[in-house]
Amino acid sequence: MSNNRILDFSLTPVKLRVRDKQLKVYDENVVRDSVPIEDIACVVLAHPQLTVSLGLMRELFAENVPIVVCDETSIPTGLCLPLYGHYAGARRVQLQAEAYSERPLMKRLWKQIVKHKIKNQARLLQLLFQDDCGLLGYYQTVKSGDSDNREGAASKRYWAKLFDGENFRRDYNGSDSINAALNYGYSLLRAIVARAIVSVGLCPTLGICHHNKYNGYALADDLIEPFRPVVDCCVYGLLGEDALDNGLIPEVKVRIIRQITSRYHIDGERVNLFETVLKAAESLVWVLKRESNEISFPTQMPFEPVDSANIQLKKPAESKKKKEPRAKKKPPF
User: Fold this and answer.
1) Could you tell me the pLDDT band of residue 35, with boundaries at 50, 70 and 90?
2) Which of 127, 154, 165, 222 could bridge to 322 as Cys pair (CB 3.0-4.6 Å)?
3) Which of the two residues, 68 and 330, has the higher pLDDT score?
4) Beta bridge partners of residue 16, listed in sequence order
5) What angle (nearest 5°) sits at the alpha carbon of residue 227, between those of residues 215 and 113?
6) Closest Cα partner for 136 from 160, 114, 118?
7) Is the CB of residue 219 less than 8 Å from the CB of residue 207?
8) Is it the case that residue 76 has pLDDT exceeding 80?
9) pLDDT digits (tens, 9 = 90+) for 125-146
10) Which conformational region is residue 62 in: left (phi greater than 0), alpha (psi within -120 to 50 degrees), or beta?
11) Number of Cα atoms under 13 Å in the Cβ half of residue 326
């Protein structure tokens, strides 16, 4: 699949239009760029004065391309998806709604999601520090519905090890450089997950564990969990290179986008994250049809893209020792 480009419009008040199935970027009535809509995975709208045509939005939704809207600090705050993404969507949403009330099934699926998340967190720590910090022990003791909150216990150790010496506290509304980078990456990944859910005809509102009347993407917040360490890995590398000293600047966004849209060797195939998430969403359909018992997550989630040689993992000795306060550097532009 070629639809793996994330377009972030945050620097200039451009006009976005559509012509001949191409997203056209106009600046002062001159076409500055053109991208085939079939190549787009997600569009991020950040500049407060840019404009988007209704025709372009229709074409994006026709191709199941999500639109992410950002606030004044470029942190994503909104997500727009097409209403219809699959020919059998009505029947599949009905199956989803019927299964929604089967708590034993939902608890079993949540156990599987939590186990894969903890396993991927443990693998990242092993890759970076040659130490899983006890996370594999938590992985082996997850109960149905994660009744003992192994996810929370594992995350506490995980963050303490990953950003040791940074006085880090995970905050979904945090504005510090680490949280801002994580939240930006997670929002893009969430859009890709939501897109996969809609593409297979499921409703993103009906979650497995996440339930909130104000959350229209509860299922996306469930299925994203095992994939979050891909973003964590990128942010760790950026921190080790002092790339976050100036906050969520364009160069940081480019690195995060490249990490999310790159291709990886996953279970013997060279695929991107959307294809992997799409496979997981499709397998959930088979579970709802009672033709399978498990969601198909990668058996081993890789973190080093095969087509982005400049994304490097830092060794612990280079970036994990405690640092003195650093002087802020001017952006390179």
Assistant:
1) very high
2) 165
3) 68
4) 25, 52
5) 70
6) 118
7) yes
8) no
9) 999 999 999 999 999 999 999 9
10) alpha
11) 14
